[in-house]
Amino acid sequence: MELGSQIKRHRTERGLSQDDLAAKIYVSRQTVSSWENDKTYPDVESLLLLSVLFDVTVDELIKGDVEAMKEAISNDYKKMSVLATGGLVIAIVGAVAAVGGIGWWDWGIVPSVIIGLLVWGIGMAMLVRVEHMKKEHDLVTYRELVAYSKGEPIDRDNPKSQRARRHRILKGVALTLVAAAVGAVIGYFGYMFLG
Length: 195
Prior knowledge:
By secondary structure, this protein is mostly helical.
C-alpha cells in the first residue's frame, strides 16, 4: 500500500501536522492518522481534496491502491454489519435470559441477572465496536454509512449531517439517561408483575 506513505510524504513536505491537514480537508486527526498507517482509506471526496491540496492528480496519489481501498471498505462495512447484527441479537438474548430465568425457568434472581448481564454485556461490547468503527470513518448518519458501503463520496455538508455532528456528547449522555430510565421502568414493572 502506498497511499498512506504518499499522504504522509506530501503532508510533511508542506510542513503540515496531522491536525493541520485534517482541518484543511474537514476530517478528524484520527482519520488522517488511520490513512497514514494504512488502517483506513480516504473516501472519494477526501481524495479529491487531498489531490488539490497537494497539487497532484488522484492517480499519482493512489498509485494502484484503488482495488485495495474497495476491498478494505467492503470488509469494514461487512464487519460493521456482522458486529451490529450479532451485538443486537446477543444483547436481546441476554435480556431474555435475565427475564426468563427469573419468571419462567426458576434460576433465581441473582443467577438470572448475572447471566443476563454477562450475555447482554457481550452484545453491547460488539455494538460499541461498531460505533468505534463509524467514528474512525467519520460516519454519523445512515446516508453517510450507505455511501461509505458503496464507496461513493460522503456528503458531510448536508443539513442532516451537520445537525447530527452538533453536540454529539450531549446527545449521547441524554440518550443514555433516557435508556436507563426506560430500563428502570421496565425492570420495576417486570419485578412487580413477575415478583
